[in-house]
Design a protein that fits this description.
This protein is an alpha/beta fold. Helices cover about 40% and strands about 10% of the residues. Strands 1, 2, 3, 4, 5 and 6 form a 6-stranded mixed β-sheet that branches. It is elongated and about 110 Å long.
Length: about 350
């Protein structure tokens, strides 16, 4: 006996199929969009998208779930760009990031900037995949670095060094779980006295040839950096134009930007002691613009001579050899006064003209 499909169920099945096809077509448009938007001669600099960087983002990876360009840019028509309709930046971030927007709405930035003013959705990375320098570039779009140094110098000693060693969010948000992340910086134009800047993947590739750039510092390619490997990297004469720079970065970033009272207190960092700064990473650039980390031996970053000479945190960073030298200086300094005083005490009767 044949089973009849009732009209209501048939209509429902057709409707679901139609929705699926439309959704797939809507999301599948991404590939077609990139065919034009990766060519600066077609779309210009302002609308150019680097497909390598975009393909790394979660936005791109969601394409398998029918998430495509027109999911966000929903004003784009099938006749784009011939329809002459201007496409504005998306305002649909809240569809997926509602919790972040709720948090951000309570911050002092909410009335001055929207998501796209800080984040490029076509290049966005997770907090551990972006360098502290790039985090600060977002802030620098509005907060000119020179003015920020001048403003902080009103109360913060060595303000420029602090700002270089900290992403703004470390102090100006309730971000959590701070670690020391080290990056390779390079002299501009390889000149002896040029300024250092964050080294790119292509720049580091020149040091290793056909090898992975990780071999610059991870000599045995085990994705773990020992103190011995750090010492070898720092002492290599071939690396005279590059060096390590450490930054205290958060593992968990938040968007509730504010001025926090405890960040005015130096003890927030400097009285935490060596135990609080044991975890560190080397973060190296990838071709897609992201950074990938390798774990560093526990406590290695606190060795000021062999770990990273460009990161020193008073109250935390130490070196065993310097500790021993300091102890010898103290002991040596005590020998003369203590020895002299002891001899005078033992020979006091002789000085008084008395016998045995």
């Amino acid at each position: 006996m044949k089973t009849k499909i009732k009209p209501p169920f048939l209509c429902l099945a057709l409707a679901l199929t139609l929705v699926a096809l439309v959704s797939a077509a809507w999301g599948a448009g991404s590939e077609g969009c990139l065919n034009c938007h990766n060519d600066i001669t077609k779309v210009g600099k302002d609308h150019l998208i680097d497909p390598v960087k975009y393909n790394h983002t979660n936005h791109s990876k969601l394409a398998d779930s029918n998430f495509g360009c027109r999911t966000c840019h929903d004003t784009v028509t099938d006749k784009h760009p011939k329809d002459g309709i201007s496409v504005s930046a998306t305002t649909r971030c809240q569809d997926c990031h509602g919790d972040v927007l709720e948090e951000y709405s309570k911050s002092m930035h909410a009335k001055n900037a929207n998501c796209g003013d800080c984040h490029n959705p076509h290049e966005v990375c997770t907090p551990t995949e972006i360098s502290g320098h790039d985090m600060n570039k977002m802030c620098a779009k509005c907060h000119e670095p020179a003015k920020m140094v001048e403003k902080h110098a009103e109360w913060l000693p060595q303000a420029e060094q602090h700002i270089e060693a900290l992403p703004c969010v470390t102090c100006h948000s309730e971000s959590k779980n701070y670690v020391i992340t080290m990056y390779i910086i390079k002299r501009e134009d390889n000149s002896r006295y040029g300024d250092f800047k964050l080294a790119t993947h292509d720049e580091l590739k020149k040091f290793v040839g056909d090898k992975d750039i990780r071999t610059l510092i991870d000599t045995n390619s085990d994705n773990y950096i020992s103190l011995a490997e750090l010492k070898l990297f720092n002492g290599n004469p071939a690396h005279k134009s590059i060096r390590l720079l450490g930054m205290m970065t958060p593992e968990v970033a938040t968007h509730n930007f504010q001025v926090l009272a405890n960040r005015w207190d130096c003890t927030f960092c400097h009285a935490s002691g060596p135990e609080a700064r044991q975890t560190s990473y080397i973060s190296l650039p990838e071709k897609d613009g992201s950074f990938q980390r390798a774990e560093v031996e526990k406590g290695a970053v606190l060795d000021a001579l062999n770990g990273t000479p460009d990161f020193y945190m008073l109250g935390s960073t130490r070196n065993p050899i310097l500790d021993k030298i300091g102890l010898l200086i103290i002991v040596g300094g005590l020998i003369l006064p203590v020895g002299h005083g002891s001899m005078r005490f033992l020979t006091r009767k002789n000085r008084n003209g008395k016998g045995h």
